[in-house]
Write a structure and sequence with these properties.
The protein has 3 domains: about 1-160, Fervidobacterium nodosum Rt17-B1 like (Heat Shock Protein 90, 2-Layer Sandwich); about 160-255, Alpha-Beta Complex (Actin, Chain A, domain 4); about 280-465, TIM Barrel (Alpha-Beta Barrel). Helix content is about 40%, strand content about 20%. The chain has helices spanning about 10-20, 25-30, 75-100, 100-105, 160-165, 170-185, 195-200, 240, 250-260, 260-270, 295-305, 315-320, 325-330, 350-370, 385-395, 405-410, 415-425, 435-450, 460-465; strands spanning about 50-60, 65-70, 110-120, 125-135, 140-150, 155, 210, 215-220, 235-240, 280-290, 310-315, 335-340, 375, 395-400, 405, 430-435, 455-460. It is elongated, with a radius of gyration of 34 Å. The structure holds nickel (II) ion.
């Protein structure tokens, strides 16, 4: 877009003179503002909504420069980024000034290159990482890195306190994380100067950092904490390692992006079991002592084919070995309860030991599945007032059974089916074990028989809900 503008003669002469002195483009831009810029600004065609960029290049006999400048609609954010860019350009200009003679003698042109790496962290939450490389003479160029993390929803640059939860101990932990990463990188490890690194990390206000969807990054300039051969250093710490030290509000913003898949799955399994019809014919199948790497997956398969739900009372020791498997059980929509840590007869233990047995397994299962445990099946069905007290203290209900499949005894599929079918009635809680292959063998026929008699397989919690039994129990089923 070119405008024709009629100017008085003396102004034209003045502008031409000024143009000769200051560079014609600068003067015209100064006088006419943006209107002479050849590129029209296209609003928000950027793949980073709210963020745009322009790259300015220059070439003279002495140097070339290419500077990428991102900009937002917020003047304050632009100003802070531009200040840093200006600093680099000024350092470059004075570097050229100093080595002007050498450049001319050697027929060498200096270079400045400021490049930008943009990362979308979440909606309108970006990290902009500048890398400024300049060489004005000497043998080596210098690279400087600078990052800005911005929240364009709130139109501000995030400060360290916006991202981290900083106190004496978290600062120490983060410093340790960084030092460990520095030492575990074989390429740069030999060049690291520990004392310098510790000095650089000492004051969290001086940390140079940024965030990507996967990592928190800490930056060190060339020569800052290592011999020059290491160059400038970036330490990437996976979000899941640094998560405990993130500011809660910020973690929440990240979470939306990070665990979308997880929350999706969680939603599925928390479509919390539909309420039952008071006149329905229900049975709760329960599986103890697992998870077992071979038997449990077979049982999950069969349950899925019959669209049946069950309850798994898992042992802490087993879950410790097979956390993924217990998660799979949960994700398949089944219920998980605890069967204690080590399968002791709890009635033989002191109260404090009982509590430990319960607490350990609850912790392990909760860690593996992300779900709170509120059902406990005491090993051997052995309970007393101490057991009830401990369970009640953890808000767990004690779940016994009304039908024992005797699968542990017969180890025979036909016998298991016979035993269950001849004892089952509406509201039964059936005891089985997902550690015997014969139990997995029995299940397809058992489910078919139960279906033929009009039973629907539900979880223990669904039955308790139906019966409005919310106390510690023990609950045996009807
Ligand atoms: Ni058991």
């Amino acid at each position: 877009m070119i405008r024709r503008i009629k100017l008085p003669g003396w102004i034209v002469i003045f502008l031409l003179l000024a143009g000769i002195v200051f560079g014609i483009d600068k003067v015209f831009v100064k006088v006419f503002g943006e209107s002479l810029e050849p590129n029209e600004k296209i609003v928000d065609s950027s793949v980073y909504p709210g963020l745009n960029i322009e790259t300015k290049t220059r070439e003279t006999d002495l140097y070339t420069s290419s500077v990428s400048k991102p900009y937002t609609d917020n003047e304050q954010i632009n100003k802070l980024m531009n200040e840093w860019i200006d600093e680099q350009e000024e350092a470059f200009t004075s570097g050229i000034e100093e080595s002007k003679n050498m450049l001319e003698e050697n027929d060498f042109r200096a270079h400045l290159n400021i490049q930008v790496d943009t990362e979308k962290i979440a909606d309108k939450l970006y990290t902009i990482e500048f890398q400024a490389y300049q060489i004005t003479g000497g043998a080596n160029g210098i690279t400087k890195i600078k990052s800005f993390v911005m929240d364009l929803n709130e139109n501000k640059l995030l400060q360290i306190d916006d991202v981290f939860q900083l106190n004496k101990s978290s600062i120490q932990d983060i410093q340790e994380l960084i030092m460990n990463k520095l030492h575990s990188n074989e390429e740069i490890k030999p060049y690291i100067l520990d004392e310098e690194a510790e000095k650089a990390l000492n004051d969290s206000n001086n940390w140079k950092w940024s965030v990507t969807p996967d990592n928190v990054i800490f930056y060190f300039d060339e020569y800052e904490i290592a011999a020059g051969a290491a160059g400038s250093i970036k330490v990437e710490i996976p979000i899941k390692e640094i998560k405990p030290y993130l500011n809660e509000t910020f973690a929440k913003k990240l979470n939306i992006e990070l665990t979308e898949e997880e929350t999706e799955k969680e939603k599925k399994s928390t479509e919390d079991y539909p309420q039952l019809d008071p006149d329905g014919k229900y049975v709760a199948l329960t599986f103890d002592d697992g998870p077992h790497p071979e038997v449990t997956p077979r049982i999950l398969d069969t349950l899925k084919k019959h669209d049946a739900k069950a309850t798994f009372f898992m042992l802490g020791t087993q879950v410790e070995y097979y956390p993924e498997l217990s998660k799979k059980v949960m994700e398949a929509g089944h219920e998980i309860g605890s069967h204690t840590m080590n399968h002791y007869d709890l009635t033989a233990l002191e109260l404090n030991q009982i509590i430990v047995e319960m607490q350990q397994s609850n912790d392990i299962i909760e860690k593996a599945t992300g779900r709170t445990i509120n059902l406990l099946r005491p090993p051997y069905g052995a309970s007393n007032s101490d057991v009830e007290q401990a369970a009640s203290g953890m808000d767990n209900s004690l779940i016994m059974w009304s039908v024992d499949s005797l699968d542990w005894k017969s180890r025979n599929a036909a016998a298991v089916n016979e035993e269950v079918m001849s004892n089952v009635s509406p509201g039964s809680i059936v005891l089985m074990h997902d550690i015997h292959p014969s139990t997995a063998d029995a299940l397809p026929q058992l489910l078919t028989s139960l279906e033929e008699q009009g039973y629907q397989m539900v979880t223990v919690s669904q039955l308790l809900e139906l019966w409005d039994e919310k106390d510690v129990g023990p609950h045996y089923g009807k």
